[in-house]
Specification:
The protein is an alpha/beta fold and 348 residues long. The chain contains 13 helices and eight strands. Helix 1 (2-24) runs antiparallel to helix 2 (30-48) and helix 4 packs across helix 8 (187-200).
């Protein structure tokens, strides 16, 4: 036991010294230094004079001998560690939220507001395409976009997720409006920036479409049709109801599996939960709570169902990307993170 006390004393001194050095280098706050000092002092007192803590042990009926009081120390340490973990998680969440808001603000300020002021008046369908390094494909997608659908003017917006290949410039050259994020944060955050811009532009319907050529702009009337007809608030374009070029067997099975999971969780049949080709009424979009920065394709549909929106699916065609490199991670990593996104959204 004496050896354990020596090790504990050395640890306490080293822990305090490290905290002090980090504080002097401005790496931790004064509050964190105080917390670290208190922990070091308690551990040092336990090592030097454990008898000082006998009254506390007696309150909880931890008798001397048989390792009971050592067990008590471990239990108290775990409790303190748990409280510190909660505090740290709260700080991380606060900082994460602040970074998101800052990036979203920069993204909106970088939008082509001057050009947008000259858009024709009237009803609008805003088509959003989050994009990262899609300069090779985005021009063809914009060129194929209908300019009008059932009396609605179609406005194409590309939100560039800090590409380094000139994606935003290529989108502008093809006739789209563009916004560029200052750092790469993922398609979900880029999409939220686009949603906010679309609502500020007075969009009646907001559509999301990939910038890599997998979704067909010619099928835009099919996707927005149920909303224009008043039959739906949110429309999901489903390759399972339409046609598709298969990328891999694992991803194909994943689409079926996750769609089935969402069907069970929400009570409404969904055939293609990973589809990024979808349309949402502007007033419905305003009610949705969107938080995912990555693996976002399931979030909008699940959130729409959670808000009791009228959700329908329509058949669309998915092709393999026309060029460039896929930004999706390996299949099993993608499946794991996609699962977490579904669960987080459903548990709200």
């Amino acid at each position: 036991m004496s050896a354990l006390r020596v090790v504990g004393g050395i640890f306490a001194v080293a822990f305090f010294a490290l905290a002090l050095i980090r504080y002097q280098r401005r790496r931790i706050s004064r509050l964190n230094l105080i917390i670290s000092s208190l922990i070091s002092a308690v551990v040092l007192l336990l090592a030097i004079a454990p008898g000082l803590f006998n009254p506390l042990f007696e309150v909880f009926n931890f008798e001397p001998g048989n390792g009971q009081r050592l067990t008590a120390v471990l239990l108290f340490a775990v409790a303190i560690q748990f409280l510190l973990l909660i505090r740290m998680q709260s700080e991380v969440d606060t900082n994460e939220r602040g970074i998101r808001q800052l990036v979203e603000s920069f993204g909106q300020s970088a939008f082509d507001w001057g050009v947008a002021a000259d858009l024709p008046a009237g009803k609008r369908i805003v088509v959003l395409s989050p994009a990262f390094n899609e300069a090779e494909n985005v021009g063809a997608v914009i060129d194929a976009m209908p300019r009008e659908v059932e009396g609605y003017h179609v406005v194409s917006i590309v939100v560039d997720d800090h590409s380094d290949d000139g994606t935003a410039d290529a989108a502008r050259e093809a006739g789209a409006l563009a916004a560029s994020l200052p750092i790469r944060r993922g398609g979900g955050l880029a999409l939220r920036v686009g949603y906010d811009i679309a609502l500020k532009l007075g969009a009646d319907i907001v559509v999301t479409m990939d910038a890599d050529g997998q979704h067909q702009p010619e099928e835009l009337p099919t996707v927005v049709g149920p909303i224009i007809e008043g039959r739906a608030d949110h429309v999901n374009g489903s390759r399972m109801l339409g046609d598709f070029e298969r990328e891999s067997l694992i991803r194909h099975l994943g689409v079926h599996f996750f769609s089935r999971v969402v069907t069970i969780l929400t009570g409404q049949r969904v055939t293609d939960i990973s589809s990024g080709y979808r349309a949402t009424r502007a007033d419905t979009l305003q009610a949705l709570i969107l938080e995912q920065d990555q693996f976002w394709t399931s979030e909008v549909t699940i959130e729409a169902l959670r808000q009791h929106a009228r959700v329908v699916e329509v058949p669309v065609t998915f092709l393999t990307r026309r060029g460039g490199v896929s930004k999706k991670p390996k299949s099993f990593r993608y499946a794991w993170n996609f699962s977490k996104a579904i669960v987080k959204t459903w548990l709200r």
